[in-house]
Structure formats: C-alpha cells, structure tokens
Amino acid sequence: MLSASTADNINKELIDYEDLLPIFTIFFMSEDIIWNNTHLLKNDYLSQNFFQYNSFLFWLWWVLPLMLTYLTIWKFSKWIIIPAYKKELETETSKTLIRISEEKKIEVAKLELKEKKLERASIEVKQISEERKIKEADPTVLWDKDYFNFKKLGYSYKFDSFINELYSGEKRYVHQFFSKDIAYFDVLGLINVTDGEIKSLTEKGRYFALKNKEN
Known about the structure:
Blueprint (H helix, E strand, L loop, with lengths): L3 H11 L6 H8 L2 H8 L3 H8 L6 H82 L2 H13 L2 H12 L6 H4 L2 H9 L3 E4 L2 E5 L1 H12 L1
Antiparallel strand pairs: 1-2
C-alpha cells in the first residue's frame, strides 16, 4: 500500500477533483511519473487506487450498465414493447371489425326498409288493380263503400230531397240546395251536369237513390 505522503504528492500532481482523477490518470498521466512516485506500473496503480478488481461493487457497477443495456435493447422490447404494440394493433383491429359490423347492420336495416316499402307499394298497386277489376266487373261493390261514408255524413236525406226536386219538373232544387251539396253530389259522380245545368242522375246516383229507399 502507498504511504500517506506519497499518495498526497501524486494527487497534487494529477488533479484536485477526485471524480476525474481516474480518467486523467488513464489518458494524460505518463507511466514514468507514476513509477517515479509509486514504483508501480500504471495498471497496478490504477488497480490499487481506482479499479479494485477483487471488489464485488466494482464488478457490479461495470456489469450492471451492460446488463441494463442488453435488457433494454434485446429483452424489454421483446417482453414489453412488442406485446404492447401487438395489443394496440389488436385493439385497432377490434375497433375496425366492430365498425364494419355496425355499418353492415345499418345497410341491412336500410335494405329491409326498402324491401318493406317496395312490398307495401306492390300491395297497394295490387289492391288498386283489384279494385279496378272489381269496379269493371261490378262497380256497386265500390259504390257501397262510398254510400256508407255518404250516409254517415248525413247526405242521404238531402239527396232524397234533391231527387224529388230534380224530377218534379219545377227545377227549384237549384235554389233550395246549397252549392256545396250539389258539388259534392257531382264529385261523387251521382249527377250529370252539362253547361252548369243538372240533367239527370248517373247510374251511381240511381244506385244511391235505390239504397236510400231500401234503408
């Protein structure tokens, strides 16, 4: 071991900062100076004073950074970074699949709604076609529906009075009935009107007159 006086002389010749002393010794101190002051080779001097190779802490402080570097570069990425990235991709994939699934449901719902509208339109067209056929074969079937609403609105009594006036020959019905009532009879197709003059009952008008008598 070095004596206290020898160590002090070396420290004064090297540097005042202990933390930088090993680096200064390695790169800037000549082996002759170390030998003249300590009678030790440069490696032996460094070993005895700075790098205690037999110490557990020396190897720990040298090996630990290497181990941490190795773990960070080669292992942590495999154990943590790659699984985390894989999990992130799986999450994004799940989100994409859910979005596609929901969009597909919307498209299916739109298609079902369109099919229902087409089906409803087809039923209405079929119904209109059937009603036209019925009307052509026996128009009284549809007239019964009109007569039901006609009677419900209270026009059956007015229509009887209108018929009486129409065939009385006095033509006083024009003044006795409101124009809206006569217009309603015309819209229903119950009367024949030519040049603003009521000529006679239509076939439907005669059917309504007959229904009034039966009821």
